[in-house]
Amino acid sequence: MSLRGFSTINYWADDVAAASAWYTEVLGVEPYFQRSGPDGTPAYAEFRIGDNEAELGLVSRAYAPPGLPDQPGGALMYWHVDDLQGTVARLLDLGATEYQPVTERGHDFVTAAVVDPFGNVLGVMYNPHYVEQFGAAAGAE
Q1: Does 82 share its domain with 35?
Q2: In this structure, what CATH number is given to the domain that contains residue 42?
Q3: For FRET with 2, which of 12, 15, 89, 90 sits at 20 to 30 Å CA-CA?
């Protein structure tokens, strides 16, 4: 067995339509795939983002596994960003709350995390190894 790379991360939401609208604003793209539940309400929305077109899925909390905590926590997955301070400021302006402050980790690695308006932890990171692999985004400082 070998872990070959990040494939999909799912965030839970009581209101998938509202979560989809919020992430559309954050990401600057609309979901490429959406599905409704049996009652016709939005149940899933999926975005492909980043250099590897990683999948970010928004799933109705109605489909969450039994015992899913109702508080943010657990594993923390970080998305690389070229402008960490600017990204964190924008997420907070859009209604996220601080979960982990901007933290220098050494050797130019810097992390932060917020809780989105739907209760999910969204980690962001400046990762020099990522920049070595993919370069900085066009227009990044």
Answers
A1: no
A2: 3.30.720.120
A3: 12
Dist. CA 41–CA 1, nearest whole Å:
38
> What is the domain range of residue 47?
1-62
Q: How confident is the model at residue 141 (pLDDT cuts 50, 70, 90)?
A: low
Let me know: does 133 contact 139? Beta carbons within 8 Å.
no
- CA pair distance 43, 138, nearest whole angstrom: 34
Lookup: tokens for 6:
């990040």
Exposed/middle/buried for 14, CB within 10 Å: 0-12, 13-18, 19+? exposed
Tokens of 44: 């899933």
Number of domains in the chain: 2
pLDDT tens digits, one per residue of 9-33: 999 999 999 999 999 999 999 999 9
